Amino acid sequence: MVGQLSHELEVNVPAGEAWELYGTLQLAKLIEEEQSLVEKIDVIEGDGGTGTILKLTFPSGTPLSGYKEKFTKVDNEKRLKEAEVIEGGYLELGFTLFRVQFEVIEKDNDSCVVRSTIEYDVKEESAANASYVTIDAVAKIAELAKNYFIKNKAAKEAH
Fold this sequence. Notes:
About 25% of the residues lie in helices and about 40% in strands. The protein is α+β, with helices and mostly antiparallel strands and about 160 residues long. The chain has a single domain (about 1-159), classed as START domain (Alpha-D-Glucose-1,6-Bisphosphate, Chain A, domain 4, 2-Layer Sandwich), CATH 3.30.530.20. The protein has a 7-stranded antiparallel sheet. A hairpin with a 2-residue loop joins strand 6 and strand 7 (about 110-120). The chain is globular. The N and C termini lie far apart (about 55 Å). Belongs to the BetVI family.
């Protein structure tokens, strides 16, 4: 069973500025600081580019305890980043693919749209586990990023 979920959020910063967060490990740091989505993010290898591997540990009481994900694509020209679960988490629930994609799309000089997409493939015998896939986490990440941009903009304007 194959599925896909998407979320879009307009942000009032230039696409290049949004990509400085989304295209780097800075996004992982922001998510970790917030603590409600992820308890801990460890960089196992890499510097944020293609091939980087992260270990995510989730707070107790969430359906997944954690997993490792690998950045399979980081395209600075297209402002596109893809990460796939490579160990644990969804793979233990019968998924053969769980990929998250972030794309920063330029709207005009001062704004952009962040499109977050989850793609997954789950074995037929585990199809009921597809209900664990929700857009909520990437939507919350987009809101976290938007708030980060608002704070940064306010800080820059204050100086």
